[in-house]
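User: I'll paste a sequence; please echo it back and then give the predicted structure.

Assistant: Echoing your sequence first, then the prediction.
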Amino acid sequence: MTDHVETLRAAALGDARARAFAALEPDRKIRNPDTLAREFLDPGERPDPDEPEQVGKFRTNLEAVLPGAYYLQNARTFHLDACLRRAIDGGFRLVVLLGAGFDTRAHRLAGAEHDVRFFEVDFGEIQREKKAALEHLPGSGARNIHYVASDFEADALADIADAPGYDSSEPTFFIWEGRSVDMTEDDVDAVLDFVSQHSVPDSGIVFDYVPRSMIDGSVAYYGGEEFRAFMDQSGRPLSFGIEDRNLRRFLAQRNFELTALVTNHELETRYLMDSDGVPHGHVPGYARIAEATIIRRRGT
């Protein structure tokens, strides 16, 4: 495993760890739906369902290092799950998870959505670890989950177009979570170009991003300074960002139409209000999640 892949693996594992603890929140209303995330942790790391105080301790420790990170993981899981369910309810039967890491959406939904084909794209080393961690679970070998081993940052997703069962003539819903922020704009363009070139109009994509002003430090966002330092120390310095006011034009230039933009405040009010109507915590001020649809193929 190269240093780059190990860095991405560590990031994916950190995300899974946060979801594993959040899945045991005492309040059901804010309890993370990813009940499979714990499977990626070593047995000694897994939170004990009979010791709820472990959740609070983990949350406090993470928030001390990365303010808002725990709550972002929780709210983002809820939101992307909702986006995917809405897409499936709207008729999408082809779903692609770009840089899937230890995301479990396909595994949580494949059993109930037999006619939906899920394609997970990531490095082969990460995929093998993922499959090994889940293989003992019922339904882990679902035939509608397909793995495409690809360094999509370098290959521009060339491998997925040739994957068995992948049909670019079908409307496709893409989920791109947690991977754009440390990519160059050229690499981001390559991903969006693939989505545009290999999907029919009205296909959709949901992705998260950060404002450029957070990356360059020109605007102070809650949790921004700590996140920049953490990414630098992790070997994934922040690179790609875009201001909200420029997002619609940025996407239009790449053959997409912006259909929704969710900010940190909306993530909090939608997903982090506890059963008493009190905010459970604050999402970092830089958190953004956008949805867009393809409006035409490039060059047509």
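The CA atoms of residues 19 and 37 lie 6 Å apart. The first helix runs from residue 3 to 22.
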